[in-house]
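Example 9 (inverse folding). The structure is encoded as follows.
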Protein backbone atom coordinates (compact mmCIF):
# COMPACT_ATOMS: atom_id res chain seq x y z
CA UNK A 1 0.00 0.00 0.00
CA UNK A 2 1.29 3.44 -0.86
CA UNK A 3 2.18 5.86 1.92
CA UNK A 4 2.15 3.21 4.65
CA UNK A 5 4.93 3.24 7.24
CA UNK A 6 6.60 0.63 9.40
CA UNK A 7 4.19 1.35 12.23
CA UNK A 8 1.27 0.39 9.97
CA UNK A 9 2.61 -3.11 9.45
CA UNK A 10 3.66 -3.56 13.08
CA UNK A 11 0.26 -2.42 14.38
CA UNK A 12 -1.62 -4.44 11.76
CA UNK A 13 0.23 -7.68 12.55
CA UNK A 14 -0.20 -7.23 16.33
CA UNK A 15 -3.92 -6.44 15.92
CA UNK A 16 -4.49 -9.52 13.75
CA UNK A 17 -2.63 -11.72 16.25
CA UNK A 18 -4.79 -10.24 19.03
CA UNK A 19 -7.97 -11.07 17.10
CA UNK A 20 -6.76 -14.63 16.43
CA UNK A 21 -5.92 -15.01 20.13
CA UNK A 22 -9.42 -13.84 21.03
CA UNK A 23 -11.19 -16.50 18.97
CA UNK A 24 -9.15 -19.39 20.44
CA UNK A 25 -11.55 -21.43 22.64
CA UNK A 26 -11.03 -21.12 26.38
CA UNK A 27 -10.63 -24.86 26.88
CA UNK A 28 -7.66 -24.85 24.48
CA UNK A 29 -5.82 -22.24 26.61
CA UNK A 30 -7.38 -22.46 30.10
CA UNK A 31 -4.96 -19.98 31.69
CA UNK A 32 -3.76 -18.32 28.51
CA UNK A 33 -6.99 -17.28 26.83
CA UNK A 34 -7.65 -13.62 26.08
CA UNK A 35 -10.20 -13.04 28.82
CA UNK A 36 -8.10 -14.60 31.60
CA UNK A 37 -4.85 -12.84 30.68
CA UNK A 38 -6.42 -9.42 30.19
CA UNK A 39 -8.31 -9.74 33.49
CA UNK A 40 -5.06 -10.47 35.32
CA UNK A 41 -3.34 -7.49 33.69
CA UNK A 42 -6.29 -5.20 34.38
CA UNK A 43 -6.51 -6.23 38.04
CA UNK A 44 -2.80 -5.55 38.49
CA UNK A 45 -3.03 -2.11 36.86
CA UNK A 46 -6.07 -1.08 38.91
CA UNK A 47 -4.57 -2.28 42.21
CA UNK A 48 -1.16 -0.69 41.64
CA UNK A 49 -1.84 2.34 39.46
CA UNK A 50 -5.43 3.46 40.01
CA UNK A 51 -4.07 6.59 41.70
CA UNK A 52 -1.95 7.26 38.60
CA UNK A 53 -5.02 7.43 36.36
CA UNK A 54 -6.77 9.69 38.87
CA UNK A 55 -3.89 12.16 39.20
CA UNK A 56 -3.16 12.14 35.47
CA UNK A 57 -6.74 12.91 34.41
CA UNK A 58 -6.96 15.78 36.89
CA UNK A 59 -3.54 17.04 35.85
CA UNK A 60 -4.59 17.12 32.18
CA UNK A 61 -7.69 19.17 33.10
CA UNK A 62 -5.66 21.63 35.17
CA UNK A 63 -3.17 22.04 32.32
CA UNK A 64 -5.99 22.73 29.84
CA UNK A 65 -7.59 25.35 32.09
CA UNK A 66 -4.24 26.99 32.72
CA UNK A 67 -3.58 27.41 28.99
CA UNK A 68 -6.73 29.54 28.66
CA UNK A 69 -5.31 32.24 30.89
CA UNK A 70 -1.72 32.30 29.67
CA UNK A 71 -0.31 34.60 26.99
CA UNK A 72 -0.17 31.57 24.72
CA UNK A 73 -3.96 31.58 24.45
CA UNK A 74 -3.82 33.96 21.49
CA UNK A 75 -1.60 31.67 19.42
CA UNK A 76 -3.38 30.19 16.42
CA UNK A 77 -3.43 26.48 15.72
CA UNK A 78 -2.03 27.20 12.31
CA UNK A 79 -0.34 30.15 10.65
CA UNK A 80 -1.31 33.64 11.80
CA UNK A 81 -3.51 34.22 8.74
CA UNK A 82 -5.26 30.82 8.78
CA UNK A 83 -9.03 30.81 9.30
CA UNK A 84 -11.19 27.93 10.65
CA UNK A 85 -12.03 25.31 8.03
CA UNK A 86 -15.46 24.48 9.52
CA UNK A 87 -18.21 26.67 10.96
CA UNK A 88 -18.69 26.72 14.73
CA UNK A 89 -21.82 24.51 14.73
CA UNK A 90 -20.33 21.90 12.38
CA UNK A 91 -17.09 21.97 14.38
CA UNK A 92 -18.94 21.32 17.63
CA UNK A 93 -21.03 18.57 16.04
CA UNK A 94 -17.94 16.80 14.67
CA UNK A 95 -15.90 16.86 17.89
CA UNK A 96 -18.92 15.87 19.98
CA UNK A 97 -19.97 12.97 17.74
CA UNK A 98 -16.44 11.62 17.72
CA UNK A 99 -15.89 12.32 21.42
CA UNK A 100 -18.59 10.38 23.22
CA UNK A 101 -21.72 9.96 21.13
CA UNK A 102 -22.37 6.23 21.58
CA UNK A 103 -21.36 6.34 25.23
CA UNK A 104 -23.84 9.08 26.10
CA UNK A 105 -26.72 7.16 24.58
CA UNK A 106 -25.66 3.91 26.28
CA UNK A 107 -24.94 5.31 29.75
CA UNK A 108 -27.40 8.24 29.79
CA UNK A 109 -29.93 6.14 31.70
CA UNK A 110 -27.84 3.15 32.81
CA UNK A 111 -25.23 5.04 34.86
CA UNK A 112 -27.44 7.28 37.02
CA UNK A 113 -29.78 4.34 37.59
CA UNK A 114 -26.87 2.16 38.72
CA UNK A 115 -25.54 4.88 41.06
CA UNK A 116 -29.00 5.41 42.55
CA UNK A 117 -29.09 1.79 43.72
CA UNK A 118 -25.35 1.50 44.40
CA UNK A 119 -24.07 5.01 45.27
CA UNK A 120 -20.41 5.93 45.83
CA UNK A 121 -21.22 6.59 49.50
CA UNK A 122 -24.11 5.81 51.82
CA UNK A 123 -27.24 3.78 51.18
CA UNK A 124 -29.02 3.43 47.87
CA UNK A 125 -32.58 4.52 46.98
CA UNK A 126 -32.38 7.65 49.15
CA UNK A 127 -32.58 11.35 48.32
CA UNK A 128 -28.83 11.68 48.79
CA UNK A 129 -28.20 8.67 46.55
CA UNK A 130 -30.34 10.25 43.84
CA UNK A 131 -28.32 13.49 44.04
CA UNK A 132 -25.00 11.64 43.94
CA UNK A 133 -26.17 9.48 41.04
CA UNK A 134 -26.59 12.42 38.69
CA UNK A 135 -23.66 14.42 40.09
CA UNK A 136 -21.18 11.62 39.47
CA UNK A 137 -22.58 11.16 35.98
CA UNK A 138 -21.79 14.85 35.38
CA UNK A 139 -18.33 14.21 36.81
CA UNK A 140 -17.54 11.18 34.65
CA UNK A 141 -18.74 12.84 31.43
CA UNK A 142 -17.84 16.46 32.13
CA UNK A 143 -14.68 18.53 32.33
CA UNK A 144 -12.23 15.68 32.96
CA UNK A 145 -12.74 13.71 29.73
CA UNK A 146 -12.85 16.87 27.64
CA UNK A 147 -9.76 18.13 29.44
CA UNK A 148 -7.98 14.96 28.31
CA UNK A 149 -9.19 15.46 24.75
CA UNK A 150 -8.26 19.15 24.81
CA UNK A 151 -4.67 18.40 25.83
CA UNK A 152 -3.87 15.98 23.05
CA UNK A 153 -5.97 17.82 20.45
CA UNK A 154 -4.22 21.09 21.27
CA UNK A 155 -0.76 19.54 21.09
CA UNK A 156 -1.42 17.72 17.82
CA UNK A 157 -3.00 20.78 16.17
CA UNK A 158 -0.20 23.09 17.33
CA UNK A 159 2.62 20.90 16.03
CA UNK A 160 0.81 19.86 12.86
CA UNK A 161 -0.54 23.21 11.67
CA UNK A 162 1.77 25.78 13.26
CA UNK A 163 5.08 23.94 13.30
CA UNK A 164 4.43 21.87 10.14
CA UNK A 165 5.22 18.67 12.03
CA UNK A 166 3.69 15.42 10.70
CA UNK A 167 0.55 14.62 12.70
CA UNK A 168 1.88 11.54 14.47
CA UNK A 169 2.72 11.14 18.14
CA UNK A 170 6.38 10.26 17.59
CA UNK A 171 7.21 13.50 15.77
CA UNK A 172 5.58 15.58 18.50
CA UNK A 173 8.05 14.11 20.98
CA UNK A 174 11.02 15.17 18.85
CA UNK A 175 11.81 18.24 21.03
CA UNK A 176 12.50 15.75 23.87
CA UNK A 177 14.03 12.72 22.13
CA UNK A 178 15.51 14.31 19.01
CA UNK A 179 16.17 12.19 15.94
CA UNK A 180 15.68 8.99 17.94
CA UNK A 181 11.95 9.27 17.16
CA UNK A 182 12.80 8.45 13.53
CA UNK A 183 13.83 4.93 14.55
CA UNK A 184 12.39 2.07 16.62
CA UNK A 185 11.53 4.42 19.51
CA UNK A 186 9.22 6.42 17.24
CA UNK A 187 7.61 3.25 15.92
CA UNK A 188 6.90 2.24 19.53
CA UNK A 189 5.27 5.59 20.35
CA UNK A 190 3.06 5.50 17.25
CA UNK A 191 2.18 1.85 17.81
CA UNK A 192 1.00 2.60 21.36
CA UNK A 193 -1.21 5.41 20.01
CA UNK A 194 -2.71 3.09 17.38
CA UNK A 195 -3.17 0.26 19.90
CA UNK A 196 -4.99 2.58 22.33
CA UNK A 197 -7.16 3.91 19.51
CA UNK A 198 -8.15 0.49 18.15
CA UNK A 199 -9.25 -0.88 21.52
CA UNK A 200 -10.62 2.36 22.92
CA UNK A 201 -12.90 2.68 19.89
CA UNK A 202 -13.65 -1.06 19.90
CA UNK A 203 -15.02 -0.59 23.43
CA UNK A 204 -17.50 2.03 22.22
CA UNK A 205 -18.42 0.04 19.14
CA UNK A 206 -19.09 -2.93 21.39
CA UNK A 207 -21.34 -0.80 23.62
CA UNK A 208 -23.15 0.44 20.51
CA UNK A 209 -23.68 -3.07 19.13
CA UNK A 210 -25.02 -4.39 22.44
CA UNK A 211 -27.41 -1.45 22.83
CA UNK A 212 -28.75 -1.71 19.28
CA UNK A 213 -29.18 -5.44 19.85
CA UNK A 214 -30.87 -4.77 23.20
CA UNK A 215 -33.21 -2.19 21.65
CA UNK A 216 -34.16 -4.46 18.76
CA UNK A 217 -34.84 -7.37 21.13
CA UNK A 218 -36.89 -5.05 23.37
CA UNK A 219 -39.04 -3.90 20.46
CA UNK A 220 -39.17 -7.32 18.76
CA UNK A 221 -39.22 -10.06 21.45
CA UNK A 222 -38.74 -12.76 18.79
CA UNK A 223 -35.20 -11.43 18.22
CA UNK A 224 -32.91 -12.39 21.09
CA UNK A 225 -30.12 -10.20 22.43
CA UNK A 226 -27.29 -12.67 21.81
CA UNK A 227 -23.74 -12.47 20.50
CA UNK A 228 -24.99 -13.64 17.10
CA UNK A 229 -27.39 -10.68 16.90
CA UNK A 230 -24.64 -8.31 18.01
CA UNK A 231 -22.26 -9.74 15.39
CA UNK A 232 -24.81 -9.26 12.62
CA UNK A 233 -25.28 -5.65 13.72
CA UNK A 234 -21.53 -5.06 13.70
CA UNK A 235 -21.27 -6.45 10.16
CA UNK A 236 -24.16 -4.29 8.88
CA UNK A 237 -22.89 -1.08 10.49
CA UNK A 238 -19.33 -1.84 9.34
CA UNK A 239 -20.54 -1.81 5.75
CA UNK A 240 -22.13 1.61 6.20
CA UNK A 241 -19.23 3.27 8.02
CA UNK A 242 -16.73 1.94 5.49
CA UNK A 243 -18.93 3.40 2.76
CA UNK A 244 -18.92 6.71 4.65
CA UNK A 245 -15.13 6.52 5.14
CA UNK A 246 -14.61 6.33 1.39
CA UNK A 247 -16.41 9.68 0.86
CA UNK A 248 -13.86 11.74 2.81
CA UNK A 249 -13.90 14.06 5.81
CA UNK A 250 -15.89 16.96 4.35
CA UNK A 251 -18.75 14.80 3.05
CA UNK A 252 -19.31 11.65 5.10
CA UNK A 253 -18.22 12.62 8.61
CA UNK A 254 -19.39 16.24 8.48
CA UNK A 255 -22.85 15.26 7.20
CA UNK A 256 -23.30 12.42 9.71
CA UNK A 257 -22.05 14.57 12.61
CA UNK A 258 -24.64 17.24 11.92
CA UNK A 259 -27.34 14.59 11.57
CA UNK A 260 -26.28 13.00 14.88
CA UNK A 261 -26.51 16.24 16.81
CA UNK A 262 -29.90 17.06 15.32
CA UNK A 263 -31.32 13.63 16.22
CA UNK A 264 -29.79 13.71 19.71
CA UNK A 265 -31.25 17.14 20.44
CA UNK A 266 -34.70 16.11 19.15
CA UNK A 267 -34.68 12.96 21.30
CA UNK A 268 -33.55 14.93 24.35
CA UNK A 269 -36.14 17.66 23.84
CA UNK A 270 -38.90 15.08 23.44
CA UNK A 271 -38.12 13.43 26.76
CA UNK A 272 -37.59 16.80 28.44
CA UNK A 273 -41.13 17.90 27.61
CA UNK A 274 -42.82 14.47 27.68
CA UNK A 275 -41.22 13.72 31.03
CA UNK A 276 -41.14 15.59 34.36
CA UNK A 277 -39.91 18.91 32.91
CA UNK A 278 -39.74 20.95 36.12
CA UNK A 279 -38.03 18.13 38.00
CA UNK A 280 -35.45 17.69 35.22
CA UNK A 281 -34.54 21.39 35.02
CA UNK A 282 -34.45 21.74 38.82
CA UNK A 283 -32.20 18.68 38.93
CA UNK A 284 -29.95 20.10 36.20
CA UNK A 285 -29.52 23.41 38.03
CA UNK A 286 -28.96 21.88 41.46
CA UNK A 287 -26.63 19.16 40.23
CA UNK A 288 -24.54 21.56 38.14
CA UNK A 289 -23.93 23.62 41.26
CA UNK A 290 -23.12 20.53 43.33
CA UNK A 291 -20.75 19.29 40.62
CA UNK A 292 -18.80 22.56 40.49
CA UNK A 293 -18.77 22.85 44.29
CA UNK A 294 -17.43 19.30 44.81
CA UNK A 295 -15.23 19.07 41.71
CA UNK A 296 -11.92 19.12 43.60
CA UNK A 297 -12.90 16.52 46.22
CA UNK A 298 -14.37 14.18 43.59
CA UNK A 299 -11.24 14.57 41.44
CA UNK A 300 -9.03 13.10 44.17
CA UNK A 301 -11.44 10.62 45.73
CA UNK A 302 -10.14 7.11 46.41
CA UNK A 303 -11.09 4.66 49.19
CA UNK A 304 -7.90 3.46 50.94
CA UNK A 305 -9.68 2.58 54.22
CA UNK A 306 -12.80 1.02 52.69
CA UNK A 307 -13.37 -2.38 51.11
CA UNK A 308 -15.17 -0.67 48.27
CA UNK A 309 -14.33 -0.97 44.58
CA UNK A 310 -16.81 1.66 43.41
CA UNK A 311 -14.14 4.19 42.39
CA UNK A 312 -12.17 1.52 40.54
CA UNK A 313 -15.27 0.16 38.80
CA UNK A 314 -16.49 3.56 37.65
CA UNK A 315 -14.12 6.55 37.90
CA UNK A 316 -10.87 4.70 37.13
CA UNK A 317 -12.55 2.85 34.26
CA UNK A 318 -13.83 6.11 32.79
CA UNK A 319 -10.49 7.91 33.08
CA UNK A 320 -8.79 4.96 31.38
CA UNK A 321 -11.48 4.84 28.69
CA UNK A 322 -11.12 8.55 27.93
CA UNK A 323 -7.34 8.26 27.77
CA UNK A 324 -7.64 5.26 25.45
CA UNK A 325 -9.92 7.38 23.25
CA UNK A 326 -7.57 10.39 23.46
CA UNK A 327 -5.30 9.63 20.48
CA UNK A 328 -8.37 9.05 18.32
CA UNK A 329 -10.49 12.00 19.46
CA UNK A 330 -7.47 14.27 19.91
CA UNK A 331 -6.19 13.60 16.39
CA UNK A 332 -9.64 14.05 14.92
CA UNK A 333 -10.55 17.32 16.67
CA UNK A 334 -7.05 18.62 15.91
CA UNK A 335 -7.67 17.87 12.23
CA UNK A 336 -10.93 19.87 12.20
CA UNK A 337 -9.67 22.77 14.40
CA UNK A 338 -7.10 24.41 12.15
CA UNK A 339 -7.22 28.21 12.36
CA UNK A 340 -8.68 28.51 15.86
CA UNK A 341 -6.72 30.09 18.70
CA UNK A 342 -5.56 28.00 21.65
CA UNK A 343 -7.98 29.85 23.94
CA UNK A 344 -10.93 29.43 21.58
CA UNK A 345 -10.10 25.76 21.08
CA UNK A 346 -9.90 24.90 24.78
CA UNK A 347 -12.99 26.88 25.80
CA UNK A 348 -14.99 25.28 22.98
CA UNK A 349 -13.78 21.77 23.69
CA UNK A 350 -14.27 22.05 27.47
CA UNK A 351 -17.44 24.01 28.05
CA UNK A 352 -19.92 23.29 25.26
CA UNK A 353 -19.78 19.45 25.36
CA UNK A 354 -19.70 19.50 29.19
CA UNK A 355 -22.90 21.54 29.40
CA UNK A 356 -24.60 19.44 26.73
CA UNK A 357 -23.59 16.23 28.54
CA UNK A 358 -24.88 17.61 31.84
CA UNK A 359 -28.25 18.42 30.27
CA UNK A 360 -28.33 14.97 28.63
CA UNK A 361 -27.84 13.16 31.94
CA UNK A 362 -30.36 15.41 33.66
CA UNK A 363 -32.98 14.53 31.04
CA UNK A 364 -32.37 10.81 30.61
CA UNK A 365 -30.83 9.88 33.96
CA UNK A 366 -33.12 12.30 35.78
CA UNK A 367 -36.19 10.74 34.17
CA UNK A 368 -35.03 7.26 35.23
CA UNK A 369 -34.39 8.37 38.82
CA UNK A 370 -37.75 10.19 38.89
CA UNK A 371 -39.57 7.05 37.72
CA UNK A 372 -37.86 4.94 40.40
CA UNK A 373 -37.99 7.48 43.24
CA UNK A 374 -41.56 8.75 42.79
CA UNK A 375 -43.32 6.12 40.64
CA UNK A 376 -41.52 2.92 41.73
CA UNK A 377 -41.61 1.83 38.08
CA UNK A 378 -39.35 -1.21 38.60
CA UNK A 379 -36.96 -0.23 35.81
CA UNK A 380 -33.91 -1.41 37.74
CA UNK A 381 -35.38 -4.90 38.11
CA UNK A 382 -35.92 -5.12 34.34
CA UNK A 383 -32.38 -3.88 33.68
CA UNK A 384 -30.91 -6.40 36.12
CA UNK A 385 -32.71 -9.22 34.32
CA UNK A 386 -32.06 -8.13 30.72
CA UNK A 387 -28.90 -6.02 30.85
CA UNK A 388 -27.89 -2.35 30.99
CA UNK A 389 -28.25 -2.04 27.23
CA UNK A 390 -32.06 -1.92 27.46
CA UNK A 391 -32.20 0.76 30.20
CA UNK A 392 -32.84 3.61 27.74
CA UNK A 393 -35.66 1.77 25.97
CA UNK A 394 -37.29 0.82 29.27
CA UNK A 395 -37.41 4.48 30.32
CA UNK A 396 -38.71 5.68 26.94
CA UNK A 397 -41.52 3.10 27.11
CA UNK A 398 -42.88 4.86 30.23
CA UNK A 399 -43.75 8.01 28.26
CA UNK A 400 -46.04 8.87 25.31
CA UNK A 401 -44.73 7.85 21.87
CA UNK A 402 -42.11 5.75 23.64
CA UNK A 403 -42.02 3.10 20.90
CA UNK A 404 -41.42 5.69 18.19
CA UNK A 405 -38.71 7.30 20.30
CA UNK A 406 -37.08 3.90 20.76
CA UNK A 407 -36.86 3.49 16.99
CA UNK A 408 -35.27 6.92 16.74
CA UNK A 409 -32.86 6.04 19.56
CA UNK A 410 -31.75 2.87 17.73
CA UNK A 411 -31.20 4.88 14.55
CA UNK A 412 -29.24 7.50 16.55
CA UNK A 413 -26.99 4.83 18.06
CA UNK A 414 -26.38 3.47 14.58
CA UNK A 415 -25.39 6.87 13.18
CA UNK A 416 -23.14 7.55 16.19
CA UNK A 417 -21.62 4.09 15.60
CA UNK A 418 -20.93 4.97 11.97
CA UNK A 419 -19.51 8.41 12.80
CA UNK A 420 -17.20 7.16 15.56
CA UNK A 421 -15.90 4.27 13.49
CA UNK A 422 -15.58 6.46 10.39
CA UNK A 423 -13.61 9.08 12.34
CA UNK A 424 -11.43 6.40 13.90
CA UNK A 425 -10.52 4.87 10.53
CA UNK A 426 -9.48 8.35 9.40
CA UNK A 427 -7.30 8.84 12.50
CA UNK A 428 -5.76 5.37 12.27
CA UNK A 429 -5.05 6.08 8.62
CA UNK A 430 -3.24 9.30 9.59
CA UNK A 431 -1.21 7.66 12.32
CA UNK A 432 -0.11 4.78 10.09
CA UNK A 433 0.79 6.87 7.01
CA UNK A 434 3.20 9.32 8.60
CA UNK A 435 0.51 11.88 9.46
CA UNK A 436 -1.13 12.17 6.02
CA UNK A 437 -4.15 14.49 6.20
CA UNK A 438 -5.81 12.44 3.45
CA UNK A 439 -4.90 8.78 4.07
CA UNK A 440 -5.66 6.30 1.25
CA UNK A 441 -9.04 4.59 1.34
CA UNK A 442 -7.38 1.17 1.34
CA UNK A 443 -5.62 2.00 4.60
CA UNK A 444 -8.81 3.37 6.19
CA UNK A 445 -10.84 0.35 5.12
CA UNK A 446 -8.18 -1.99 6.52
CA UNK A 447 -8.44 -0.33 9.90
CA UNK A 448 -12.23 -0.39 9.63
CA UNK A 449 -12.19 -4.17 9.43
CA UNK A 450 -9.68 -4.39 12.31
CA UNK A 451 -11.85 -2.17 14.56
CA UNK A 452 -15.02 -4.17 13.98
CA UNK A 453 -13.22 -7.49 14.36
CA UNK A 454 -11.69 -6.31 17.64
CA UNK A 455 -15.10 -5.23 18.98
CA UNK A 456 -16.60 -8.59 17.98
CA UNK A 457 -13.75 -10.55 19.58
CA UNK A 458 -13.99 -8.59 22.84
CA UNK A 459 -17.75 -9.20 23.01
CA UNK A 460 -17.16 -12.88 22.28
CA UNK A 461 -14.44 -13.13 24.93
CA UNK A 462 -16.34 -11.56 27.80
CA UNK A 463 -19.03 -9.08 26.85
CA UNK A 464 -19.06 -5.62 28.41
CA UNK A 465 -16.48 -6.54 31.06
CA UNK A 466 -13.97 -7.49 28.37
CA UNK A 467 -14.60 -4.16 26.62
CA UNK A 468 -13.87 -2.25 29.82
CA UNK A 469 -10.76 -4.35 30.50
CA UNK A 470 -9.34 -3.61 27.03
CA UNK A 471 -9.71 0.15 27.57
CA UNK A 472 -7.93 0.15 30.91
CA UNK A 473 -4.98 -1.84 29.56
CA UNK A 474 -4.65 0.20 26.35
CA UNK A 475 -4.73 3.50 28.26
CA UNK A 476 -1.87 2.81 30.66
CA UNK A 477 1.14 3.29 28.34
CA UNK A 478 -0.53 6.14 26.48
CA UNK A 479 -0.98 8.09 29.74
CA UNK A 480 2.80 8.25 30.03
CA UNK A 481 3.07 9.40 26.40
CA UNK A 482 0.53 12.18 27.03
CA UNK A 483 2.60 13.48 29.93
CA UNK A 484 5.69 13.54 27.69
CA UNK A 485 3.69 15.38 25.01
CA UNK A 486 2.86 18.15 27.49
CA UNK A 487 6.56 18.65 28.26
CA UNK A 488 7.26 18.74 24.53
CA UNK A 489 4.58 21.43 23.98
CA UNK A 490 5.84 23.58 26.87
CA UNK A 491 9.38 23.37 25.50
CA UNK A 492 8.21 24.41 22.03
CA UNK A 493 6.06 27.26 23.36
CA UNK A 494 9.08 28.69 25.18
CA UNK A 495 10.95 28.75 21.86
CA UNK A 496 7.97 30.49 20.23
CA UNK A 497 7.93 33.03 23.06
CA UNK A 498 11.60 33.78 22.42
CA UNK A 499 11.02 34.18 18.66
CA UNK A 500 8.04 36.46 19.30
CA UNK A 501 10.13 38.66 21.62
CA UNK A 502 12.90 38.92 19.04
CA UNK A 503 10.40 39.94 16.33
CA UNK A 504 8.90 42.55 18.66
CA UNK A 505 12.33 44.04 19.45
CA UNK A 506 13.16 44.12 15.74
CA UNK A 507 9.93 45.98 14.94
CA UNK A 508 10.55 48.51 17.71
CA UNK A 509 14.06 49.17 16.40
CA UNK A 510 12.76 49.58 12.84
CA UNK A 511 10.06 51.99 14.04
CA UNK A 512 12.63 53.99 16.05
CA UNK A 513 15.03 54.26 13.09
CA UNK A 514 12.23 55.57 10.88
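The amino acid assigned to each position is listed next.
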Amino acid sequence: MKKTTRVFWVALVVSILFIIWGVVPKDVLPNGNLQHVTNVIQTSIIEKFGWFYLLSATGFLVFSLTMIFTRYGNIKLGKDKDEPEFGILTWFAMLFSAGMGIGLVFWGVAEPLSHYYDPPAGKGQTTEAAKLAVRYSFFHWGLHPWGIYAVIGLILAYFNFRRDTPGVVSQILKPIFGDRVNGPLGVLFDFIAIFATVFGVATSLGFGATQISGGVSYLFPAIHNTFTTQLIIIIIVTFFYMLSASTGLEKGIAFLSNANILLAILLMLFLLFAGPTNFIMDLFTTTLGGYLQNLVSMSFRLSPFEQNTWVQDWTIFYWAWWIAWAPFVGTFIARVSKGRTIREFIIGVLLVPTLFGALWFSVFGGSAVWLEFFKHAGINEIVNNRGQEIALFTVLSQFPLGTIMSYIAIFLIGTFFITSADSATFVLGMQSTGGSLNPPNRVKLTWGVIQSASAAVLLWAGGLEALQTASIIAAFPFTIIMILMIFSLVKSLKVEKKVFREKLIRRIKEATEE
